[in-house]
DNA sequence: CTGAAGTTTCAGAAATTATTGAAAGTTTAG
DNA sequence: CTAAACTTTCAATAATTTCTGAAACTTCAG
């Protein structure tokens, strides 16, 4: 590993836990993404100085996040690993996976609690608050979906618009009917 | 605590670590948000069955996230705690705080690495990839800023638009000049 | 079928993170 | 100033998470 790669790998390791996986999994991801060629499990273990067993578990986890995929190299017995797609794809996968783990279970619980009939009078207020949280989470997830569907280029266009989005929004009543008309 | 509140508090505890804080901090946040009245530290410790010391640290952390604030109740010696704002405000704070911890350090490192002059030839490719990651993170954070500035009502409007956003985007060249003209 | 090359599993060890509770600190009423 | 009421700190301990490495497993060439 060149010094630059080493820095990046170390950093992704440290950040790993904040991003939802552990140190070694973070390092492994960085290594695989930055590598020019497919990497074998043993190469990864050697580069990062971790046990072969740990490497195997880490690869399994990265696959469960759909961030890497196996690739057979003709003539070679062992399996090699490469990123599951472009940076944009990988970022989307992380988002999606985190949504599944961080938001979906909460939305589900909130829905259930809202259906429970209140056992106490103070529950009315509580349910209202839970409802508010639920709606907010729903909005945010629906929105991030929308952005994902746009793809990176359109996202960039939208970005350049900046606060212009607010302005467009004010105009939408004028625009959309016109569009419907055509 | 009513059964509904208990369920919610427990759930926020379990999710806590995924959201960036630990179990008890998650429980404390839920309790404070769902409570109708300001809560004293001792009440929180009792309700959650945790030590007074742990409570104190948890409150400190919630304050560092700017999710709760202290409130003095006239005639009372002790301090009480209430949410730092509406659900929308709290959600924004969590987003912002997480961005600071999860994205900003990485962007900063990536910028530095991109400035380093490559020691090896294979670094050229690596730097290109790092650059790509950097730009993506930049886009996403700028966008989430934008959404935060819009506020909840406009976000809702935008939401209803759904995939219409894509369509509007196609029209923007027609719209924005018109706007500039007026 | 055999064994070499490779991978996965998992019990225990190591490392990290969270929690307690007692001691030290702070604030205020009197 | 003193003492009661309350809060914070932090060393020790408990709980949790991660990592290792040896054993079990799989695959395939010969």
Automatic annotation (TrEMBL), chains A, B:
**Where does the HTH marR-type domain lie?**
20-78
| Keyword ATP-binding among UniProt keywords | no
* UniProt cross-references to Pfam families, sorted A to Z: MarR_2 (PF12802)
Keyword Transcription regulation set for record: yes
Q: Which domain of life is it from?
A: Bacteria
Q: Which InterPro entries match?
A: ArsR-like_HTH, HTH-GbsR_regulator, HTH_MarR-typ, MJ1563, WH-like_DNA-bd_sf, WH_DNA-bd_sf
Q: Keywords for this entry?
A: DNA-binding, Transcription, Transcription regulation
Q: State the family it belongs to.
A: Belongs to the GbsR family.
Q: What is this protein called?
A: HTH-type transcriptional regulator
């Amino acid at each position: 590993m060149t010094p630059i790669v080493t820095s990046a790998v170390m950093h992704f390791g440290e950040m790993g836990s904040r991003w939802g996986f552990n140190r070694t999994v973070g390092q492994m991801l960085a290594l695989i993404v930055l590598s020019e060629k497919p990497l074998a499990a043993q190469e990864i273990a050697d580069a990062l100085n971790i046990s072969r067993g740990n490497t195997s578990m880490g690869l399994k986890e990265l696959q469960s996040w759909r961030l890497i995929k196996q690739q057979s190299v003709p003539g070679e017995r062992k399996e090699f690993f490469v990123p599951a797609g472009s940076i944009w794809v990988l970022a989307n996968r992380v988002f999606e996976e985190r949504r599944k783990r961080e938001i979906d279970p909460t939305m589900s619980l909130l829905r259930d609690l809202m259906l429970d009939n209140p056992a106490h009078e103070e529950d009315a207020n509580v349910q209202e608050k839970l409802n508010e949280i639920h709606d907010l989470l729903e909005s945010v997830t629906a929105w991030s979906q929308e952005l994902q569907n746009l793809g990176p280029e359109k996202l960039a266009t939208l970005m350049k618009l900046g606060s212009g989005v607010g302005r467009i929004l004010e105009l939408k009543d004028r625009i959309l009917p016109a569009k419907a008309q055509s």
